[in-house]
Amino acid sequence: MSDKSQEPIHIIGAGLAGAEAAWQIAQLGVRVILHEMRPVRSTPVHQGADFAELVCSNSFRADDAVASAIGILHREMRRLGSLIMACADAHQVPAGGALAVDRLGFASHVTKTIEACPLIEIVRDEVETLPPEDWDQVIVATGPLTSPSLAGALKSLIGEEDLAFFDAIAPIVYRDSIDMSQAWFQSRYDKKGPGGSGADYINCPLDKAQYVAFVEALIAAEKIEFKTFEDTPYFDGCLPIEIMAERGIETLRHGPMKPFGLTNPHAPQVKAYAIVQLRQDNHLGTLYNMVGFQTKLKHAAQVELLRTIPGLEKAQFARLGGLHRNSFLNSPKLLDQMLRLKAAPHLRFAGQITGCEGYVESAAIGLIAGRLAAAERLGLPASLPPATTAIGALLHHITGGHLETIEAGRSSFQPMNVNFGLFPPLLGQIAAPDGKKLRGPDKAAAKKRALSARAGADLDAWLGTLAPLAAE
User: Fold this and answer.
1) Chain segment 175-218, per-residue pLDDT in tens
2) Residue 334: which of 150, 139, 158 has the closest Cα?
3) CA atoms within 13 Å, Cβ hemisphere of 455
4) DSSP letters along 53-90, please?
5) Is the domain 168-323 a CATH 2.30.42.10 member?
6) For residue 323, what pLDDT band results from cuts at 50, 70 and 90?
7) Domain(s) of CATH 3.50.50.60: residues in the chain
8) pLDDT digits (tens, 9 = 90+) for 275-305
9) How far apart, in whole angstroms, are the C-alpha atoms of residue 322 and residue 298?
10) E strands within 82-188?
């Protein structure tokens, strides 16, 4: 063990990620000082002073470890001794196939468990500046509403352009749900660009009547209003599509839906009036984002509207669009695989500020950050979970599973929930027990079962290699 094995690890923020990180570190015998600014200073959305307060839904989403990626993440978190999952299970309320909790009982349970742990010291005060030099290991888990003073200090260290305060999100579609009998691969004017092939986008064509109907439905659709603290103005570079549509019927077809430089091979003599482009969103090629389609439409309205686009009638979405004030790092650029800031490796980040979405995802990254920090403190080798597991796939997305956009080399990294599109593809064809080729829903269900089985086996194999850091 290292000479510093008895020194504490500081954690800033006691939300889901911070609380989970503190618990994991303490379970491995390392001291923690947990800094939480509430109730000394609150946020626009928190109501109380308990740790891990759920400020939005009380749902941890589907608890099916066979048919859902979040269910697989639940299973892995339980296997890794997650405090957040243990408290969620203890305060479960009826929610069909989902894991939903009594939010007050859940947060109280997390808080009391942390308070009772002898290796965790709690400091109720705001960390307003970069941590002092004698804090040689720090986990920053301050969430999407990081306090302005600390956010300003972080900006001075990493640069304002890499700490986003305006979260422009376009919908992301599963590649295998796009109808390629209507859509086609092509880059505008067949331009290859850096690392491109000249066929890097999926294109969905609309004729004039379809385009006009789309714009009219877009303007009429239900939208989410900004909350009072989301006072960041719109940027022209990431306007919601509905705002562009309100500027005139032709605005979108001269913006994100422009048809120029593209030829439909299914109907080469017919010029499309407008075209929706989708760009590969991950290295695996399983996810495609809708270029320029950031939106404030309500989720049900988005699904209904986007499925009117030719080729997307049966689209399945890994994530729907949104636009709101947020704070998250350009993590693939700034963080190493161990979640450490490359410019200051004593700072490790966890939770939503790293670019994951969702309660369980935030806690999962907190869990991994805590275990990595404890291993470093104890002088033990650290090992990352396989990318074939849910937690490994999510970690890979955060630290390097993004793509670079063609425009000026800017990162396309955006916050993401765990989903099957983040998992590496299965090898070989999926067949029925009788050897027949599966199609449609049967194939999709079999694929999920196979991904779940592989994730479970690979997690068990990984845990078997960890020895002192393995979960009980």
Assistant:
1) 999 999 999 999 888 887 655 688 888 999 999 999 999 999 99
2) 158
3) 34
4) ---S-SEEEE--TTT-HHHHHHHHHHHTT-HHHHHHHH
5) no
6) low
7) 9-165+326-423+460-469
8) 999 988 776 888 888 988 988 899 999 999 9
9) 9
10) 92-93, 98-101, 120-123, 138-140, 163-164, 167-169, 172-174, 184-185
| pLDDT tens, position by position, 210-255 | 999 999 999 999 887 655 444 444 445 567 899 899 999 999 999 9
Nearest to 389 by CA among 358, 416, 410, 418: 418
Output the DSSP codes for 211-227. Answer: HHHHHHHHHHS-BPPPP
What is the CATH class of 9-165+326-423+460-469?
alpha beta
Where does CATH 2.40.30.260 sit in the chain? 168-323
How far apart, in whole angstroms, are the C-alpha atoms of residue 358 and residue 319? 12
Q: How far is CA 106 from CA 23, 78, 385, 417, in A?
A: 15, 16, 27, 22
